[in-house]
Amino acid sequence: MTIELPSLTIPGVTVEVLRAKCATCSMHQLCLPMGLGAADMDRLDQIIGRRRKVPRGGTLFRIGAPFTSLYAIRLGHFKTYQINADGAEQVTGFQMAGELLGMDAISTDRHHCNAMALEDSEVCEIPFSSLQQLLADMPALLRHFHRMMSQEITREQSVMLLLGNMQATQRFAAFIVNLSSRYEARGYSATQFQLRMSREEIGNYLGLTIESISRLLSKFKKEGLLRVSNREIELLDPARLKAITAGMDRCG
Amino acid sequence: MTIELPSLTIPGVTVEVLRAKCATCSMHQLCLPMGLGAADMDRLDQIIGRRRKVPRGGTLFRIGAPFTSLYAIRLGHFKTYQINADGAEQVTGFQMAGELLGMDAISTDRHHCNAMALEDSEVCEIPFSSLQQLLADMPALLRHFHRMMSQEITREQSVMLLLGNMQATQRFAAFIVNLSSRYEARGYSATQFQLRMSREEIGNYLGLTIESISRLLSKFKKEGLLRVSNREIELLDPARLKAITAGMDRCG
DNA sequence: CGTGAATTTGACTGACATCAACTCAGGTGG
DNA sequence: CCACCTGAGTTGATGTCAGTCAAATTCACG
Q1: Where are the domains positioned within chain B?
Q2: What's the pLDDT band for B22 if we cut at 50, 70, 90?
Q3: Inter-chain touch B156–A156, beta carbons under 8 Å
Q4: Do B110 and A154 touch (CB under 8 A)?
């Protein structure tokens, strides 16, 4: 187990999490926050299934596929998306290393969304049946697992808020700020990072068109909020971006 | 324990659930689907805390309040809503008897949304610490609890789909169809029911204005899809409504 | 009944979508 | 090395769906 990451910001609260990771996989999200003893940690390590590489554009699981495992992202980025009855996609989230995929499939034993790698990525498979047995034995792990599912619920609620009553500018600022804080939590720069997703995917996620995203990027650039070069982004005025996110910025 | 409800439709799959309910409370959602033995059922009954009445317009819990219990709705209807940084509300869901409230609070031990009764209602308090102990002992209950949390995740994903890429007409049809199937699952009429929420609350939930909702109701009425009288609604052409929901209806 | 709140309806407006043309980056092959 | 190609992204002109504003109507309740 190696010390690695500083702290994780959960909407509203900052918790000390992700401080180390398993030797087997980067499962910060399952191993860590609850101070498991060494023996417990071993048991957890043992149920972690095979690692799996997913190439850029590759699919980790599809809607309707039987659910057997959760997936912890070791490396890379994913998007999850739903397919409407009329065939339209809706991106429901972007996931990065240290996050857990597949929790929506527990309800019916089938996946409810597709998960696609945005770049060459690697995941750890966690057979859910094994995990369940462990959960029954390890209250701390159980509690943490519940926190993770709950966190996914609150994440989605924020997206509902975003889609339901924010304007385009506010949505986009919120998106940038969210990415920024997630990279920061992982020990990366909060002000400089690469967008792993296309403008189209961002637009789809935010309920906007690709043209709108492009215009918003230009606007933010012009206003000195961002430096943009292709998918490389630098936040020049994080405070103001946060203000826009919060709807406290009326001039933009 | 009394036999009561037929079956519950989860998006995509129909599962036999909710077949009976506890004597203590109408906790279909926790007691039922996993064939608990009588002894287990007793233990579950014992941890159910006091019943609590919430009058119309009353608040069950507020954003930021410490999390101690989940709440099973015995009777009545609730709405949950978030408050934006700039004070705007966003309704994140409408809940009815047999549904569980408060799961979003597990992640940080604080509530992330407000829950307000839409009519005089009654809930059972389920102290989460007691529930956790039970979960460790009863694998079937544990599995079911996970299903419920997962179901909330998929529910929210559908709302994201709705807000992210449906048109007003489609959103509203989806809303009506969703209510209809939930009432049907509870043994009530699928074609005739009361809207417990105001036009404003519907609009807020669907990312539309109260005027738009009003116009949509009128439109559906004119097209012979609905009969509407105040908050009383009758579905005259459920099949066509479902078609609109699915985006398969281009004439509307 | 009467009063205020909720809802409906209509006219107008605006934010974002759509359509279309153009630019640019990165890869391929001559 | 450069011409070409392709797909991603940008920018501008125009259209439209739903929002805003305002007034009329209905409903709920004392």
Answers
A1: 11-161, 166-245
A2: very low
A3: yes
A4: no
- The verdict on a CB contact (< 8 Å) between B149 and A150 is yes
Amino acid at A44: L
* C-alpha distances in Å from residue B222, one per residue of A19, A61, B34, B48, B250: 61, 44, 45, 48, 17
Task: Express each pLDDT in B66-87 by its tens digit.
Answer: 999 999 999 999 999 999 888 8
Lowest mean pLDDT among A121-125, A235-239, B27-31: B27-31
Helices B128-137 and A139-165, axial angle in degrees (round to 10): 120
Q: Distance (Å, rounded) from C-alpha B101 to C-alpha B71?
A: 5
Which CATH number applies to A11-161: 2.60.40.2250, 2.40.50.100, 1.10.1610.10, 2.60.120.10? 2.60.120.10
Which residues of chain A from 183 to 202 reach within 8 Å of chain B, CB to CB?
Answer: none
> Can you count the helices (H) and strands (E) in chain B?
8, 15
> Which two structure tokens, joined as six digits, stand for B180?
């209809």
pLDDT in tens, B132-148: 999 998 998 999 999 99
Altogether, the residues listed in chain A come to a count of 252
Facing residue for A160 by CB, picked from B148, B156, B166:
B156
| CATH number attached to the domain at B166-245 | 1.10.10.10
- Give buried/exposed letters for B191-206 (b at 16+ CB in 10 A, else e): bebebbbebebbbbbb
8 Å CB contact between B50 and B125: yes
Give the neighbor-by-neighbor strand order of the sheet with A100-101.
Answer: A51-54, A121-127, A69-75, A100-101
Under 8 Å CB-to-CB from A39, ≥6 apart: which residues? Answer: none
Q: Which residues of A touch B154 (CB under 8 A)?
A: 104, 107-108, 112
Q: What does the alpha-carbon distance between residue B252 and residue B245 come to, in Å, rounded to a whole number? A: 11
Contact A133, A74 (CB under 8 A): no
